[in-house]
Amino acid sequence: GKDYTKDRPEGVRDHILEKIVRTNGIIRKLADGKHVIWIDLYPKFLDADGLPRLDYFHDGTHPNSAGYTVIADAILPIYRKILKK
Questions:
Q1: Is the pLDDT of residue 9 over 60?
Q2: Could you give phi then psi for residue 52, rounded to 5 degrees?
Q3: Given a cut of 50, is residue 18 above it in pLDDT?
Q4: Residue-level pLDDT at 44
Q5: How far is residue 63's CA from residue 65's CA, in Å, rounded to a whole number?
Q6: pLDDT tens for residues 22-47?
Q7: 21-46 b/e with 16+ CB inside 10 Å = b?
Q8: Residue 70 contacts by C-beta under 8 Å, 6 or more apart in sequence?
Q9: How far apart, in whole angstroms, are the C-alpha atoms of residue 50 and residue 53?
Q10: 38: helix, coil or strand?
């Protein structure tokens, strides 16, 4: 939807975002920096209020071309570093 405060029942948004943060924390622990590299994309998709930036999603969940540009900008420097080795 276009408005997270209207399109989602009260508290659901916070519950979902809390799960994302908790899941990212679990995944982050698996990263060793060598075989598994952690890139924290989550903050890059939030606005100043800590809510998902809707301009990066076509349906509020899946990235659109602007969202994929954010992902690419975060990943490309790591790929370049790996390829130099």
A1: no
A2: -55, 135
A3: yes
A4: 94
A5: 7
A6: 898 998 999 998 888 899 998 999 88
A7: eeeeeeeeeeeeeeeeeeeeeeeebe
A8: 41, 44, 45, 56, 63
A9: 9
A10: coil
Look up residue 38 and give its two tokens: 């952690």
What is d(CA 24, CA 16) in angstroms, rounded to the nearest whole number? 12
User: Which two three-digit tokens encode residue 25?
Assistant: 């924390």
Phi, psi of 14 (to 5 degrees): -65, -40
- What is the sign of the dihedral through the CA atoms of 23, 44, 9 and 61? negative
Which amino acid belongs to residue 82? I
- 48-65 residues labelled b (16+ CB within 10 A) or e (exposed): eeeebebebbeeeeebee
